[in-house]
Amino acid sequence: RMVRLRERLARSGALGSTLLRLLSRGDISEADWEEIEETLLLADIGAGPTDELMTALRTRVKVLGTTDPEQVRDILREELLTLVDPDMDRRLAASPVVGDDGEPHPATILMVGVNGTGKTTTVGKLARLLVAEDRDVLLGAADTFRAAAADQLATWGERVGVPVVRSDRDGADPAAVAFDAVKAGREAGVDVVLVDTAGRLQNKAGLMDELGKIKRVVARQAPVSEVLLVLDATTGQNGMRQAQVFAEVVDVTGIVLTKLDGTAKGGIVVAVQRELGVPVKFVGLGEGPDDLAPFDPKGFVDALVS
Ligand code: GDP
């Protein structure tokens, strides 16, 4: 998968090649540095991280005084890796937990994000990954506002071979469906319950009410292990604003960046981690069931500067 990501980034994104070309010049002019900065900003790395990277590159490339592309590539790789924060803990909390009652409860993972970002698809793909690790998974279709979401999730459930708890009527209370799903998962003794939620962003108070209620209600059945925020990598600054709103209303524990296959702007990984202080845990690389990968900082940076 990382190979595919690398191919796609290399094909679509001029980030790595532009930076390497400019940085390998013997005497880098101010105009070159400006182009480097622009290239970083265009890749959605964000203003703060771009400044940091610029300072580091100016210093190191100047000190080294090198035009050797391999040395320049190594510097760039190291500095980008620092920005991606390779030491963040990206493991998914997907093992059953013992509750206050001393009983085992499934790991409960809430998937949140604006509609259209790929939330439902990501629930299906994540279920696939977990099943491949021999975990028992159950899905909860608590996106009751988008009419087709529950059907879509049911299709994923069939495809991946995991049960789906849904309401039999449209417009049901999402918290009630989430509660039923976690209860069913607990009774069945599954390892993980993945809950798909609705992402209507018409106003912050509404979102806060809705997600807050889901979380409270679910917590009566099992501690919430993770809240994964699903973001569409192709939406740039708009996506960043969405991310901030979600982070303000609920404790996000990880980010899933979808549609990274469709953009040259992989720098958004850096920007969103920095902004939220939360690790990117998975990346979406396509629409198929196997197109979700745990985020690997080193592979990602290699892909950018290959
Ligand atoms: P939701 O409204 O957030 O639940 O979004 P969906 O799961 O319905 O996804 C919206 C669209 O994005 C669908 O056409 C998905 O197939 C597509 N999609 C989801 N993840 C990815 C991804 O990683 N890459 C690509 N190219 N498309 C994706």
UniProtKB/TrEMBL annotation:
<keyword id="KW-0547">Nucleotide-binding</keyword>
<comment type="similarity">
    <text>Belongs to the GTP-binding SRP family. FtsY subfamily.</text>
</comment>
<keyword id="KW-0342">GTP-binding</keyword>
<feature type="binding site">
    <location>
        <begin position="113"/>
        <end position="120"/>
    </location>
    <ligand>
        <name>GTP</name>
    </ligand>
</feature>
<keyword id="KW-0812">Transmembrane</keyword>
<keyword id="KW-0675">Receptor</keyword>
<keyword id="KW-0378">Hydrolase</keyword>
<feature type="domain" description="SRP54-type proteins GTP-binding">
    <location>
        <begin position="279"/>
        <end position="292"/>
    </location>
</feature>
<comment type="subunit">
    <text>Part of the signal recognition particle protein translocation system, which is composed of SRP and FtsY.</text>
</comment>
<keyword id="KW-0472">Membrane</keyword>
<keyword id="KW-1003">Cell membrane</keyword>
<comment type="function">
    <text>Involved in targeting and insertion of nascent membrane proteins into the cytoplasmic membrane. Acts as a receptor for the complex formed by the signal recognition particle (SRP) and the ribosome-nascent chain (RNC).</text>
</comment>
<feature type="binding site">
    <location>
        <begin position="258"/>
        <end position="261"/>
    </location>
    <ligand>
        <name>GTP</name>
    </ligand>
</feature>
<protein>
    <recommendedName>
        <fullName>Signal recognition particle receptor FtsY</fullName>
        <ecNumber>3.6.5.4</ecNumber>
    </recommendedName>
</protein>
<keyword id="KW-1133">Transmembrane helix</keyword>
<feature type="binding site">
    <location>
        <begin position="196"/>
        <end position="200"/>
    </location>
    <ligand>
        <name>GTP</name>
    </ligand>
</feature>
<keyword id="KW-0963">Cytoplasm</keyword>
